[in-house]
Write the structure tokens for this entry.
Amino acid sequence: MNATPTILWLRKDLRLDDHPALSWALERGGPVLPVFISDPRSEGAAADGDAARAWLHRSLKSLAGRLDALGGRLILRRGPSLETLLSLVRETGADAVAWNRRYEPDVIGRDSAVKKALLAAGVEVRSFNGSLLFAPNRVENKAGLPFRVFTPFWKHCLGQAVRPAIPYSLDRWPAHTGTVDSEPLDSLGLRPDVSWDAGLFRIWEPGEPAALARLDHFAGEIVSGYATNRDRPDLDGSSRLSPHLHWGEISPVRIFHRIRAADAGRGGEVFLSEIGWREFAHHLLFHFPDTIDQPLRPEFRSFPWETDAAVLRAWQRGQTGYPIVDAGMRQLWATGWMHNRVRMVVASFLVKHLLQPWQAGAAWFRDTLVDADLASNTLGWQWTAGCGADAAPYFRVFNPMLQGDRFDPEGAYVRKWVPELARLPSVWIQRPWEAPAAVLQEAGLELGHDYPAPLVDHAAARNRALAAYERIRQKG
Ligand code: FAD
């Protein structure tokens, strides 16, 4: 059995369960040194935004506590990654480094350089797929090309076996006995200077135990109704696993088998297809890395956006005068998360009603979502803007009032996040500007004073969006 230490380079896999790199290190034998290196500069567009970094702070704290309880110790360092790893190799005498791969373009570049340099220094390097059901470079269509349409992609994936979760038991951590310096968590600067994040963590609990508990709750109570309730922002109808998945506090393999075992019928299959959309997002980002800021469909490069900082700000602050849009944007600001149906509505509103570039919306989401993820965010915005793979056609403009009527029928979601509208009867809650003066007065609401009048007229904005689209269509 090997006795020299293995460095376990932790990144977006902050868990102990079903962890391929950890499993390899354990099997190899000898001490295992878990290390997290903060090195956002080397991650390019994949560097995390503020809300996700605040999550990371707490996730690392949770993981460090669990390792302590097992007799291990999480080493924290600040980058650059390669120099830090080489230094750790020198300090500990480690002769191997293992990690789970990331698939964002800049990170792939960095990791390849790290691998090459470590190998040149005589260190064994092993990397694994620990974040996806199917590694994106392993999935291709019959012509050997990447998929661009979700349904055949997911059908192809489901035709392959998902590996079982890796069985290993961890009663005691195989700890390194020598002294290794670790930086204090606070020195990584992950928490915001002004503690605007306190509200986020009244509702979220980062870390693997909470992720597994959430999966249990979802598999037991929610998944059977998922097919119908997932579109209702007023209900607890989805898993809320997205930030846990982003930080790898839970593995998609674990989720896949747990949901299959729950035998939840259509709810289970629809849910797994959403996990499939996450896979598809990584597949697209891997094969089309330019889509981070360029539309996949080239005709959209000349789209006549009407960039306007004040309009963007009204959207960001939830002050557009459209209740379902404002509710979503305020839910995002208060909780770092927004319901998927409402993400589609607010994104469509920004790019179509307000003609603001989708990249501006993606940047705001990146900074404010606790689950902000380069692959899923890029897919979500390109899909909504109509310029991505398998996207909603641009001419399908969501009507925010009808979306509200359909998916928030009693207006409970709007009432919660836009309390100034709370006393309006349901029939007017999605369209307060149409309410008779007496109804507004009864509800204690003066439009333009207590709540904004609509920033744009729906019908006029729709026509303007369609005209803009027609201009690029003719050119294309
Ligand atoms: P559930 O409905 O319970 O789904 C389970 C899991 O499947 C999610 O946790 C997520 O990992 C995955 N998933 C579900 N829907 C999608 C989807 N459309 N695309 C990719 N993966 C999906 N998701 C992110 O994780 N990070 C993002 O930055 C992000 N940005 C988005 C931006 C826009 C404009 C849109 C329309 C969607 C975006 N999504 C993003 C996808 C989706 O809204 C969230 O994953 C979902 O709302 C998370 O809630 P949940 O965990 O309860 O989802």
Summary: The pocket of flavin-adenine dinucleotide is lined by residues 230, 238-242, 245-246, 274-275, 277-278, 281, 340, 343-344, 347, 365, 369, 371-373, 376-377, 379-381, 384 (CB under 6 Å). The CA atoms of residues 395 and 470 lie 9 Å apart. The mean pLDDT is 96. The two ends are 64 Å apart (CA to CA).
